[in-house]
Every structure is written in C-alpha cells, then in structure tokens.
Amino acid sequence: MYSGELEVQAKRKALAVLQDEINRILNAGRVLSTLPKMLVKKDKAGIKIALEQISSIEDEVENLRRKITRDVADVGGLILNRDNILNTAYTMDEISGYITGISFKLSNIKISTMKTANLDNDLTELIELVVDEIYKLNEIIRSLNVDSAKSIELAQETQKIEREIDNKYRIMSITALNEITDTKELILMKDVIESIEEMADKCQEVSDSFILLALSL
C-alpha cells in the first residue's frame, strides 16, 4: 500500500475519533442548556443527574483525546498535518472542561440571582447558541470525508453564530452589572457568562482547524 493511501486511512481514523469526541461534547452542551431552568425550579434530582452526566462525558472526551494522541503517535510522520489534528482534539477537550466548569458555577448561583432581570432565560439562550455552534461542528466533521467544500461552507456559519454569542454576551454582562447588587453573586454570574463566551471562542478555534483539515483532504 502506498504511503499516500496509508495517510488517508490514518486521517480518516483520526476524524472518526474527533467525530465521536464532538458528539459527546454536543450531548454535554445540551444537558448544560437545561440547567438554568432546573435550578430555578429547585429540581435537585434533575440537577444532580445533569452534573453527573456532564462529569461522565468529560471523562469520555478525555479518554478519546488520549486515544487520538496514541493513534497519531503510532502512525508517526504518515500524517503531514498531525499537529493540527492533535491541537483540535486538545481544544475539544478544553470545551468539555468549560462545560463542566460552567455547570459547577451555575449550580452555586442563588435562585434569586438567576431570576434577576430574567437572566435564567438569557443564560439558557446563550448556552443554546453555543450548542448550535457545537452542532455545526458536528455537521462539519461529518461532511469532511464526503464533501470538503460543504465543510468550509458550514464553518462560515459558525462565525455567524459566534457573532450572535458575542452580542448577547455583551448585553448580559451589562445587565448583570446593572441589576445584581450582591458582589459575590455578581462575580459568579459574570464568571459564568464569560466562561460561556470563552467556550464559544474555543468552538470557533475548532471550526478553523476543521477548515485546515478540509483543505488537506
């Protein structure tokens, strides 16, 4: 078998693991989006299950990241853009870590703070926008093996979602500053909002990496 064929096989194997990784992150994001409403409703059982699911998915994502690291190491120089693949896997791992961190911080915000100026609804909408972005990443990687041009087109759509997230992030930050009077609660809420925005930035990094992968296939 020619080295070129081996490289293609190795890339496709790596992409399969990346797809598995993004699928799990998408599931964790969807669970996270349900958390603000459960907190307001004082659904302790639901909150406990959600936090456990998110933690479990983070472990799964970390294991997949380790797998792709081993796989890429095994094929050595066969994959020319192996650094990009590894960086993508590690950035995905960071996204999963953000989801876990956000869920923990959210669960420690007072219900009265969550209800301030309908921030619970705004948080749900902001998280759902990031979930939409992750879903686009899922679509991109699924199309990489089939239609790389489509992948690039989808990647441009993530940029539009990113702009929506930035706008909502700024509005929510101002709302929190103006409406939350408790300093500790304000710091915690701002930390949550900023973490969600930073997670969206990481999603955009992954999208950019996927474009490079699309151009190399």
UniProtKB/TrEMBL annotation:
Pfam families registered for this protein in UniProt: PhoU_div
The UniProt record lists the keyword Coiled coil: yes
Keywords of this entry: Coiled coil
Recorded superkingdom: Archaea
Keyword Glycosyltransferase found: no
Gene3D superfamilies per UniProt: Phosphate transport system protein phou homolog 2, domain 2
Residue ranges the record marks as coiled coil: 8-74
Family in the record: Belongs to the UPF0111 family.
Protein name per Swiss-Prot or TrEMBL: DUF47 family protein
